[in-house]
Amino acid sequence: MKRHNEMKKFLFQIVWIVCMPKLMAQEILTVDQAVQMALKNNYEIKIATNELIVDKENNSVGNAGMLPQVDATLTKNNSIQNSKQTQSNGDIRELDNAKNNRLEYGVNLGWTVFDGMKMFARYDQLKELEKQGDVQLKLMVLTKVSDVMTTYFDLVQQQQLMKALDTTIVISKQRLRTAENRFLIGKAAKLEVLNAQVDLNTDASVLLKQKELFGITKIRLNELLARDLAVDFEVVEEVEVDDKLQLAELKSLTEKQNLQLQLALINKRVSELDLKQTKSNRYPTVRLNTGYTFVETANSLGFTTATSSRGLNYGLTASIPIFNGFSQNRNEKVAKLQVENSVIVAEQQKQSVNAQLASAYQTYLTNVQLAKLEENNEAIAKKNLEITLDKFRIGTITTIEFRNAQENYVNAIARNSSAKFQAKISEIVLQQIAGNIKF
Predict the structure, then answer these.
(1) Which one of 79, 98, 119, 141 has the minimum C-beta count within 10 Å?
(2) 156-185 b/e with 16+ CB inside 10 Å = b?
(3) pLDDT for 185
(4) pLDDT digits (tens, 9 = 90+) for 314-351
(5) Beta bridge partners of 114
(6) Looking at the DSSP assignment, which residues form a beta bridge with residue 109?
(7) Cβ distance 188 to 171 under 8 Å?
């Protein structure tokens, strides 16, 4: 019992010595902090946000063509000509370098008051395009949040594995010292020392590769957070997996909140409004015109050498298409096919999302069960290592048996971390499909 307690104390000291200095020296980044940082800094989210602002600016009655257009105009024409005029009585008048000047300026207003209801369909379409931009922004945010969380929890499992490898290196060093001491007093062969050294080098090599992968994944997370790639940090090791998710509830949320489904329905509505605008070209277009114009002319040769006028002009223009080479029929047929395709795409998207949800839920159930199983396996492997290390000290087991116990412990930790990671990712995928990730 005493030796067992000493073993626990020894393992606790290993973890404390190896891990605590790192945790105290570096930033502890939580998953919530990482998500908020990404929402604030991520470049793709910023781009999608600006695109939504563009859609909002475009959503106006003026852009739909409902408002009049007012233009201020100014025209100044000058000419120098050699002129010759023959009058009705036979007199001839000639002038070289005759100057003719005309100045016209004013304000004109044009207003399309009827275009077959096309402007109203266009305005409704602009509203739908704004909704489309809003959903696309939410989809981008949801995707990036999911990427951040996935990368974060990947770091969690890697950090746990590195600590396990740190621990096994400490144990391997103790084993090497024990083997060297036994060799010196003649209780072990040189081969035992060499085997211990080889295993220690193997553990160091594995740890080195794991640190490389850990560093690369950190860079990836910093990239998602749009901050200095060299920023170092540690992640929180506790991973809480929600193992209570129910398929029926997720289906209900998916029908209401799935962004892909919402986007498909908006695209269908946009296609319908395109068809409505195309049909409006069959109707007349009525446009009101008015303006106030000033005109001044000056002629060097002629009956009138100077004129000026000012006044109001107004009128109405109406046009109706009669024949345009069957383009109207063709355009309507194409627009109808686009509406039909948008309906098919919406149905296809619904089927695809439901299939993704069903598959992801099955994977989730499996991963949750595996996480529970591997957690139990890690506890057993740890207990086995404690007993094996105790027996190795007194020389009642072989080095091969000790090494097997050591490797089993590390592998159990790796499998447990991986199982928790996969279970958490399955949870994130389900919440993403249901549009229910909280941030």
Answers:
(1) 79
(2) bbbbbbbbbbbbbbbbbebbbebbeeebee
(3) 85
(4) 999 999 999 888 999 999 999 999 999 999 999 999 99
(5) 286
(6) 70, 290
(7) no
Measured distance CA(380)–CA(415) in Å, rounded: 13
Rounded to an integer, what distance in angstroms lies between the CA atom of residue 235 and that of residue 75? 71
- Distance from C-alpha of 15 to C-alpha of 162, rounded to nearest angstrom: 11
Tell me how far the alpha carbon of residue 240 is from its chain's centroid: 25
- Given a cut of 90, is residue 394 above it in pLDDT? no
Q: How many CB atoms lie within 10 A of CB 284?
A: 11
Q: Which residue type is seen at 107?
A: V
pLDDT in the model for residue 26: 67
pLDDT band (50, 70, 90) for residue 301: low
Structural domain boundaries in the chain = 2-41+115-284+320-433
φ/ψ region of 294 (left if φ > 0, alpha if ψ in -120 to 50, else beta) reads beta
**What is the number of residues in the chain?**
439
Q: What is the residue whose two structure tokens read 């000291």?
A: 13
Q: How far apart are CA 180 and CA 188, in angstroms?
A: 8
Residue 274 has which token pair?
């395109």
The pLDDT mean for the chain works out to 88
Using DSSP's 3-state secondary structure scheme, residue 205 falls into helix
Residue type, 370: L
Report the percent of the chain where pLDDT is more than 70. 92
Q: CB of 168 within 8 A of CB of 196? A: no
Distance CA 372, CA 429 (A): 20
The CATH label, of 2.60.40.10, 3.40.50.300, 1.20.1600.10, 3.40.50.2000, for the domain at 2-41+115-284+320-433 is 1.20.1600.10
Rounded distance, CA 174 to CA 259, Å?
Answer: 56
Look up residue 49 and give its two tokens.
């946000």
For residues 338, 341, 347, 349, the Cα torsion angle rounded to the nearest 10 degrees is -90
Q: What is the pTM of this model?
A: 0.82
What number of other Cβ atoms are within 10 A of residue 78's Cβ?
10
pLDDT higher for 87 or 199?
Answer: 199
Q: Which amino acid is at 161?
A: L
Of the candidates 166, 118, 121, 138, the one whose C-alpha atom is nearest the C-alpha of residue 321 is 118
Catalogue the E-assigned strands of 65-135. 69-86, 92-114
